[in-house]
Amino acid sequence: MRSWLLGLCAALVLCAQYATPARADEEPGPLPYAKFIEGAQGQHGLFGVWRKNGKVFLELSKSQLGRDYIQSAVPVNGLGGFGVFPGAFDYFSARLIRFTRNDNRIVITWPNTNFKAPAGSPADNAIQATSADSVLGVSKVVAQDALTGNVVFDASPFLGDVIDLSDTLKLNLNTNPEQQYRLNADESMFGPTKAFPNNVLIEAQQSWETSDPVIVDNVPDPRSIRFRIDYNIIEPPDSHDYMPRIADDRVGFFSTSFLDFSNERKRDRNLYYVIRWNLQPTDPTKAMSPAKHPMVFYLSNTIPTEYRAGMRDALLEWNKAFARVGISDAVQVKDQPDDPNWDADDIRYSVVRWLTESNGGGFAEAQIVADPRTGEEFHTGVLVDADIMQGGNRVWNYMIEPTRSANARNFGAREAQYAAGMADQRNYGLVALNLFGDLRSYQAPSAFNYAFMKSILLHEAGHDMGLQHNYIGSEAYTAKQLQSQAFTSRMGVATSVMEYAPLNLWPKGTGQGDYFQTVLGPYDYYAIHWGYARIPGARTPEDELPTLRRWAQQWSNPLYRFASDEDAAWGNAHAIDPRVNQWDLSNDTLSWCRTEMNIEHNLLNGLDRRFPRAGEDYESERDAFGVVLRQYGRCALMTEHYIGGQYLSRSHFGDPNSGQPLKAVSRSDERRAWQTLDQTLFSDAAWSFSPTTLSRLTYSEYAPFNQASWNYAPPDRHDVPIVDIVAQYQNAALDRMFQPLMLARLRDLSLTARPGETMSLTDLFDWTQGSVYGDLSSKNLRSIPLIHRNLQQSYARLLVRLVNAPAAGTPYDAQSLARAKLVELGDSIQHMPKAQLDELTRAHLADLRHRISQGLDAHTVLPSAPRMARPY
Predict the structure, then answer these.
(1) Does residue 51 sit in helix, strand or coil?
(2) How far apart are CA 643 and CA 122, in angstroms?
(3) What is the pTM of this model?
(4) Continuous segment of H or E residues that includes residue 332
(5) From CA 460, how far away is CA 1, in angstroms rounded?
(6) Where would a tag sit more exposed on the chain, N or C end, judged by fewer CB atoms within 10 A?
(7) In 10 A of CB 592, how many CB atoms?
(8) Neighbours of 434 (CB within 10 A)
(9) What is the pLDDT of residues 769-820, one digit of tens each?
(10) Where are the alpha helices (DSSP H) in 472-618?
(11) What is the distance between the alpha carbons of residues 799 and 826, in angstroms, rounded to a whole number?
(12) What is the DSSP secondary-structure string of 652-683?
């Protein structure tokens, strides 16, 4: 035994003499594969996934290195309605991902897909030479299989801020720049991982903390947030039978965009492929044939039984549109199988999921994963938050928030606001039907819930088909048609399920159509035909263009019009067409709004008759008041869209009945809209409510031991701050009408319209002055009511800002008119008889005159001339 040991030692010494010593600056090479997998847990699918010592590793074969895959990333949890939504796909749009080896490192890149040219062409060579890829990270090769060539590398780069949560949190949570949330890499780790045949899922559990912790009882409280992010690495679809379709701005499809360097004769390089499912008939020679690649939805087993029928019927409703282009069974719906091996995270399954959150607020969102190179959609689904079926005190959080929904940062945020708005419509309907006497309890009838859920899923499934929002779809039908159930059951309450259509409610004694959009509209059939119908003989996307352009010539027909998010960005005065709204109905929005607001005013003053029921607290009446008031305020603000408006046409030159692309709203319609604003928004009578009702609008008080924010967040006041809410609506209208973009547009309309044909900048100042200060000329004035005093103070301050601190881009003429109106108002107040006025009114007018004097006498530095806009 001793001699054997001596021999072994001698051999080791001899080997050591001939071994090449490792340099101090060299890292040890990869471990042998067999050595690495000792004690590791493996999962096998598209890639191998290994877990060892708290880390996650990926295993790729030699053939998988250098290949392009598709990566998506979505939050698994969120902030309960504050800007980060579970499952939202648009924080990080699906993109290509590539793994390449460089010595003992794996470089993880996102190849640049923004440029397009024929492979191997000089243009393609130029693209490859000049365009840079993005780098996700560089990872060490930790093991290699000498037999197969497979490599194993650390997946730690996926723990980083891949989806740019930093900016999202900054936008939605941080008001203090010193307390911004930052990723704590030391406390971030991997969650579950899964490997399927066509995708690998890696969950990153990230800790985000404020840089300036709050100190509570001398104990650091970092206010950390722990997010779970799912990264999917996906096998690209087999696209040998898919041909991209070039988008058209007259029909609303999502698109993926490129700069096209293949043709130097084009006017510009922009190229857009529509995003759509690879739906085509199995046998294109037949008039009707089953779908070759059907869109199959699975209903999650978490969905309450009572809502499943509405969801299923909504999804299957889309088959009617595909049948018209010769494809049967394009959409199929199945229940989640009772199989422990079935997993909703398997990319092969498109799932409708039901979420429960502490304060999600109620939202629904389509999930779309598409190949960024072609626009081919190959995975989809719908998320539905349980709160969508609830009401409650969330209506007080942002009374006028829906007016800003089109300016939301991303699609997920807009969809969250859509579903919240739909929940408002549902709750409003329940309040109204209770007060109409059509319901005997607060519980919604099953038919009402069915129609509501079907309308939600019709909309979200439309996104799954690739369709954008269509906010002009409510403008085609007359009031009489909307009051006919025979009409709405066939045509819908709007021309498209992609509209944000409100509850279709009419006064008692008139006709009543369907409450919600429960069928596809004419535009939906038209859009599906344009996007999915085969074009025989076309071999390239360019071959399809003559036919597609001919199909898209129908924009001038109200049944087939399209206008999307950018057309409804009213919050920053970018939107100009008053036909493009959310939550409006009929081809006469002003008349519909007057009808709606009359209903709502009557409901608000009749709440005491039905709310609360015997034995209940008063919070039900408070919630009902908030729901109805929100509908009233939304309509009151909507009438402002006519002020300085222009009708915008998407028709191309030569399309039938195309007309002018821009046409100013007539002065008579703008004057009519202003009269509605004056009577429903700026007048005191519009906000006159029963004092008895207002004194009943309190909330229920609870003080749970744990004081979680979702069950104990009492408002500052026990009553409803009606004066402040009214001021929100009034100031929102004033702010929007006096934004630089609006003022400049009104100024410039004098160059494109004849005098008196449309309103002018002078009209805006004159009409506002009359609405806000017209009562000062009354000889019988004794008192100015509270709400009107606030309005007068707010508008005076707005005029002073225009004079002394105008926002960039404010026209000089607007500044001049603001000064003139302040002088006019000051003179009017000075010469008013004061003796008959009450003390508060005298004090109010004295303060107004003082502020006007200060504003006119202020010494300000003149701003430089506004920056010249680009000529094109």
Answers:
(1) strand
(2) 53
(3) 0.90
(4) strand 331-335
(5) 78
(6) C
(7) 20
(8) 20
(9) 999 999 999 989 999 999 999 999 999 999 999 999 999 999 999 999 999 9
(10) 479-482, 485-491, 522-532, 541-551, 589-604
(11) 12
(12) PTTSTT---SEEEPPHHHHHHHHHHHIIIIIS
